[in-house]
TrEMBL record:
<dbReference type="GO" id="GO:0005524">
    <property type="term" value="F:ATP binding"/>
</dbReference>
<dbReference type="InterPro" id="IPR050093">
    <property type="entry name" value="ABC_SmlMolc_Importer"/>
</dbReference>
<dbReference type="InterPro" id="IPR003593">
    <property type="entry name" value="AAA+_ATPase"/>
</dbReference>
<dbReference type="InterPro" id="IPR027417">
    <property type="entry name" value="P-loop_NTPase"/>
</dbReference>
<dbReference type="InterPro" id="IPR017871">
    <property type="entry name" value="ABC_transporter-like_CS"/>
</dbReference>
<keyword id="KW-0472">Membrane</keyword>
<dbReference type="Pfam" id="PF00005">
    <property type="entry name" value="ABC_tran"/>
</dbReference>
<keyword id="KW-0547">Nucleotide-binding</keyword>
<dbReference type="InterPro" id="IPR003439">
    <property type="entry name" value="ABC_transporter-like_ATP-bd"/>
</dbReference>
<keyword id="KW-0067">ATP-binding</keyword>
<keyword id="KW-0410">Iron transport</keyword>
<dbReference type="InterPro" id="IPR015853">
    <property type="entry name" value="ABC_transpr_FbpC"/>
</dbReference>
<keyword id="KW-1003">Cell membrane</keyword>
<feature type="domain" description="ABC transporter">
    <location>
        <begin position="2"/>
        <end position="232"/>
    </location>
</feature>
<keyword id="KW-0813">Transport</keyword>
<keyword id="KW-0408">Iron</keyword>
<protein>
    <submittedName>
        <fullName>ABC transporter ATP-binding protein</fullName>
    </submittedName>
</protein>
Length: 242
């Protein structure tokens, strides 16, 4: 589905991405782990068309993305902030992409209601965004993205502003919706446990250089992910409590 080759980007004298390459098949979620400032957001912005690369190629479903403006790339970029239309209801926020595509009203009602049920939002359909919790607003944001059936979802730490329990709930919701819709996505995070939860493929981005892993086990074993150290820590806590 997505092929990125030898991508490079600098801002002035600062090199942000260096020779980044990845391949992402359809229906897979690439979890990209990395610390703040490592280049994760820049990578997503280049794929989305919000930044221009200095070098490299980008292909989505065999089509060169570089000459295409963001609105023609058939992808959606989701941030930490849902960025909903404050004057529209939940229903109309989700329906927006279909309305500007001139979809018939009957189909809009059917598709939006189906998605509201999948996202557990039916009872909130006529509420305004300010009447929702943070997790509910993020669900609406997902719904607005999914309703137009994008080829690729780009998720920039979408649960980073949520409390721990809501974040865990949203991770599980993401997994369920991903399976239902066979989504293809890149999910960037600085949380190793979140990466393990949401990803089907794994990568680590550090100082502009991307490492992809052949398996989850390889990802866990890499010292940079800090996963084995966390496991040992919690095992030691458990032994102490027992």
């Amino acid at each position: 589905m997505l092929e990125v080759s030898a991508l490079a980007k600098s801002f002035g004298s600062q090199s942000v991405l260096r020779d980044v390459s990845l391949t992402l098949p359809a229906g897979e979620v690439l979890a990209v782990l990395g610390r703040s400032g490592g280049g994760k957001t820049t990578l997503l912005k280049i794929i989305a068309g919000l930044e221009a690369p200095d070098a490299g190629t980008l292909h989505l479903a065999g089509h060169d993305l570089r000459p295409l403006p963001p609105n023609q790339r058939q992808l959606v970029y989701l941030y930490q902030e849902p960025l909903l239309f404050p004057h529209l209801t939940v229903f109309e926020n989700i329906a927006f992409g279909l309305r500007i595509r001139k979809v018939a009203n009957g189909k809009i009602t059917q598709q939006v209601n189906q998605l509201l049920d999948e996202l557990d939002l039916r009872e909130h359909a006529q509420k305004a965004p300010h009447q929702l919790s943070g997790g509910q607003r993020q669900r609406v944001s997902f719904g607005r993205a999914l309703i137009i059936r994008p080829r690729l979802l780009l998720l920039d730490e979408p649960f980073g502003n949520l409390d721990a329990q809501t974040r865990a709930d949203m991770q599980q919701l993401f997994l369920r919706v991903r399976q239902q819709h066979q989504m293809t996505a890149i999910f960037v995070t600085h949380d190793s446990r979140e990466a393990l939860t949401v990803g089907s493929r794994f990568a680590y981005l550090e100082q502009g250089q991307l490492t992809t892993f052949a398996s989850k086990a390889d990802f866990v074993r890499d010292a940079r992910t800090n996963i084995q150290q966390e496991v040992r820590f919690w095992e030691s806590i458990s032994r102490t409590e027992n």
